[in-house]
């Protein structure tokens, strides 16, 4: 069985939705690999193997070994198409990489110390405005995740992209753009206290319902 970071595939010419559906009925998953100087190539993978691999968060932000017909090349997972109503994977997009060239990838954010956050102890709640960020770096510098420490956040405060400790050699795409793109990553909001008229409104609605029943 392949490791978490190795996807075993075979070349297959796929054309149209009918061919893709036939592939899925065989327990296979259609995919495409593109990038660098080579032409895009349609491939198929074992559905069960892929499903198990995608349970690991690190797969989405890791340089992968894509083994096609016995030949291995480096790639990153650029897209996962899922069924809108079923727990089913429909298609994968892989992008070939050059280990000497910078790549763009989305890296998950791991929020730590939320339970001991200053603002939370004061009765606030943490809301996450972002769950991942797009970065640019050499493949060897691609982080599995980026940690966001919430310990010192006070009630009503926010953490922005510039507040995050970014690993050396990694650039946040949004901050490299012109203009102000220092987006909010997380904030501590005060929990809304119930108003006196909330109870009155509930009682009023209940009274109206009783009157209708009578």
Structure notes:
The protein has 2 domains: 6-97, Ribosomal Protein L25, Chain P (Beta Barrel); 104-190, RNA Polymerase Alpha Subunit, Chain A, domain 2. Strand 5 (71-82) and strand 6 (89-96) form a beta hairpin. The protein has a 6-stranded mixed β-barrel with strand order 1-3-2-6-5-4. It has a 4-stranded mixed β-sheet with strand order 10-7-9-12. Strands 8-13-11 form a 3-stranded antiparallel β-sheet. The protein is α+β, with helices and mostly antiparallel strands. 20% of the residues lie in helices and 38% in strands. It has helices at residues 16-25, 47-53, 118-121, 173-176, 196-213; strands spanning 6-11, 28-34, 41-46, 64-68, 71-82, 89-96, 103-112, 124-128, 132-137, 146-149, 158-160, 171-172, 184-190.
Précis, in short:
With 214 residues, the chain is α+β, with helices and mostly antiparallel strands. The chain is 20% helix and 38% strand.
Write the layout of secondary structure elements.
Blueprint: E1 6-11, H1 16-25, E2 28-34, E3 41-46, H2 47-53, E4 64-68, E5 71-82, E6 89-96, E7 103-112, H3 118-121, E8 124-128, E9 132-137, E10 146-149, E11 158-160, E12 171-172, H4 173-176, E13 184-190, H5 196-213
Parallel strand pairs: 1-4, 2-6, 7-10
Antiparallel strand pairs: 1-3, 2-3, 4-5, 5-6, 7-9, 8-13, 9-12, 11-13
């Amino acid at each position: 069985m392949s490791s978490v970071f190795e996807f075993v595939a075979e070349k297959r010419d796929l054309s149209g939705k009918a061919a893709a559906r036939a592939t899925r009925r065989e327990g296979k998953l259609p995919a495409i690999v593109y990038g660098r100087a080579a032409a895009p190539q349609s491939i198929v993978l074992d559905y069960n193997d892929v499903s198990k691999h995608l349970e690991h968060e690190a797969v989405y932000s890791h340089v992968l070994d894509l083994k096609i017909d016995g030949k291995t090349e480096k790639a990153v997972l650029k897209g996962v198409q899922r069924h809108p109503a079923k727990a089913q994977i429909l298609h994968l997009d892989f992008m070939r990489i050059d280990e000497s060239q910078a790549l763009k990838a989305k890296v998950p954010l791991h929020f730590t110390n939320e339970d001991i956050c200053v603002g939370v102890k004061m009765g606030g709640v943490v809301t996450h405005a972002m769950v991942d960020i797009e970065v640019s770096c050499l493949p060897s510098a691609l982080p599995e995740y980026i940690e966001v420490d919430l310990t010192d956040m006070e009630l009503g405060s926010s953490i922005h992209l510039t507040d995050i400790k970014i690993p050396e050699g990694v650039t946040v795409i949004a901050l490299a753009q012109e203009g102000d793109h220092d987006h909010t990553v997380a904030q501590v909001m005060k929990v809304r206290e119930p108003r006196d008229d909330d109870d009155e409104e509930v009682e009023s609605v209940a009274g109206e319902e009783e009157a209708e029943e009578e």
